[in-house]
Amino acid sequence: MMTKTVIIGTNHAGIAAANTLLDNYPDQEVVMIDRNSNLSYLGCGTALWVGRQVNDYHGLFYTKVEDFTNKGAKITLEAEVKDIDFDKKVVHYIKKDGTELTEDYDKLILATGSLPISPNVAGKDLNGIHFLKLFQDGQDVDKEISAEEVKNVAVIGAGYIGVEIAEAAKRRGKNVLLF
Ligand SMILES: Cc1cc2nc3c(=O)[nH]c(=O)nc-3n(C[C@H](O)[C@H](O)[C@H](O)COP(=O)(O)OP(=O)(O)OC[C@H]3O[C@@H](n4cnc5c(N)ncnc54)[C@H](O)[C@@H]3O)c2cc1C
């Protein structure tokens, strides 16, 4: 008998779960859902790209939708899970175009990851402020840093992500403040 597993979140954790199921368990029907438009972006490459230590960001993805459909999985991107009925075992999700869909499951894997903390400070919604998590965020930061008129870059958060992006901005000739 087939077991249907729904995986919410198709980035690194969701990808690993899907490949483990699809490669090792022939009784698995796998459904994958993610709200992002891409999967498998290696965030570690953002600073390398922004600092132009690599000259192409396309190599920062290691898998694609077809790799899963070819193994028989159903995968939907740009679709956000809004509700889960744990009693009936049904996932409710909505596509970018507004279409509402449901998927029932035997097993559910939540690989929904994390979000950056947004400090509640005045001005946090001003232009020119970016998080650094998604592929899209990295592209936004890169665009900003590529602008000639941008001379000073402030990085908030001096963990390894902050330090690496500070170094990248320095490589691009900016004055950098690291908090
Ligand atoms: C700039 C940067 C540099 C990094 N460098 C390194 C490094 O050098 N080495 C290292 O080991 N790690 C690094 N990391 C950390 C690494 O990227 C994370 O640990 C990893 O992304 C976690 O994977 P995940 O699949 O658990 O979560 P995530 O990558 O957060 O993925 C979660 C997925 O769930 C989806 N999702 C969430 N909620 C919903 C919903 N309601 N409906 C549909 N989809 C949903 C999201 O769209 C997302 O695609 C870095 C991270 C960043 C941001």
Concise structural overview:
The protein is an alpha/beta fold and 179 residues long. 27% of the residues lie in helices and 25% in strands.
SSE arrangement:
Elements: E1 3-8, H1 12-24, E2 28-33, H2 44-50, H3 65-69, E3 74-76, E4 79-85, E5 90-95, E6 100-104, E7 107-110, H4 135-146, E8 152-155, H5 160-171, E9 175-178
Parallel strand pairs: 1-2, 1-7, 2-3, 8-9
Antiparallel strand pairs: 4-5, 5-6
Helix pairs in contact: 2-4, 2-5
Give the helix proportion (percent range): 25-40%
User: Which stretches of 5+ consecutive residues score pLDDT under 50?
Assistant: none
CATH topology of the largest domain: FAD/NAD(P)-binding domain
Identify the quaternary structure here: single chain
* H/E element sequence: EHEHHEEEEEHEHE
Radius of gyration: 19 Å
Termini Cα gap: 56 Å
CATH class of the largest domain: Alpha Beta
**Lateral strand order in the biggest sheet:** 3-2-1-7
Number of beta strands: 9
CATH superfamily of the largest domain: FAD/NAD(P)-binding domain
Q: Outline, from the CA principal axes? A: elongated
What profile does the largest beta sheet have?
Answer: 4 strands, parallel
Count structural domains. Answer: 2
Total number of helices = 5
Structural class designation: alpha/beta
Strand content: 25-35%
User: Under the CATH scheme, which architecture of the largest domain would be assigned?
Assistant: 3-Layer(bba) Sandwich
Bound molecules: flavin-adenine dinucleotide
Mean pLDDT, all residues: 97
